[in-house]
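Complex 385.
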Amino acid sequence: MSEETTNNKDFATRLIHFGAEIDKTTGASSVPIYQASTFHHFDLENPPEFDYSRSGNPTRQALEDYIAMLEGGVRGFAFASGMAAISSAFMILSAGDHVICTEDVYGGTYRLLTTILNRMNIGTTFVDMTDIDEVKAALRPNTKAVFIETPSNPTLKITDIREVAEWAKENGLITMLDNTFMTPYHQRPIEHGIDIVLHSATKFLGGHSDVLAGLAVAANESMAVRLKMIQNGMGSVLSAQESWLLMRGMKTLKARMEASEASARRLAEWLSQHPGIDKVYYPGLADHPRREVHEKQSLGYGAVVSFDVGSGDKAKQLLSKVNIPLVAVSLGAVESILSYPAMMSHASMPREVRLERGITDGLVRYSVGLEDIGDIIADLEQALK
Ligand SMILES: *Cc1c(COP(=O)(O)O)cnc(C)c1O
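Predicted structure with pyridoxal-5'-phosphate bound:
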């Protein structure tokens, strides 16, 4: 516990004092927004550090250094969205390569792999990543990468990061992990052997439902060089304005995560006692499958609770009766967000595939915000009646 406390304390301080928090030339208390597409060459023989904003922008650079430091990687990269970050990371692969991916992966990642990358002749095998034997059985001579999401989305299945990463390393595979749900405050996958950490920063990192952004962090120089070339070559970079706004949100990550998580724990306990609820998914619940694996690799349980109200009709009724949460796609904001995977985030997944993965018609996902937990519970109570 003492080590965790120290880590958390260090992390809290580093969130505020991340290196660029004071502008070196003016002493300004926030990173300047360099709203410029290009940079003057004062001396042709010595080109400037930044020469064109797709290749590099000082505001974006501050954000990229910030996330690299928080995740413990060598270099960070900021993209226009989470999917821009994820699709760019997949550009490391070549035609003919094969990927092993978590089966209940984020819907957009599933769509990317099954409708776009498949046309580039990059094949995917979706596996229950919680079962290492299933992961091993999916290995082919052309397998190049393993894509992990843990806890998975939306049923919060737990993958043993170190176990998969070690096996992948033995087989020369690149490992990528979508850390959106946990954030580096709770989970730092590079410490467990992952090569590339990915984020939809639109969620907890931004935290206010007002910025769309994606981040990637490379664990080593070889990954960093490849990601840099792809980021510059494909050009789906984050703008200076959005980079600034994201940094502004990230400074309060710990305060927001802590408060939301405390409420999420109470919500999960309350839901699991409720007679109208068939099933509750939350890694913090005593009976959540592989909770001990999660506790080994993560410092918290997060703020997303999924639960099954039994049928599509009941789910729709609940969504129409709640007053506190935003009924929407997305998560990880100051306001609570209630979403309906079957018709929202996982609508692009065929129904039978969805059902196989436990994403039933009655499953809803509650991302707990910063409202009073008593009010959140009372609101759900009336909506479930
Ligand atoms: C939202 C989300 C994404 C996609 O990010 P965008 O910013 O919407 O492009 C990827 N992974 C997870 C887990 C997400 O929740």
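The chain has a mean pLDDT of 95.
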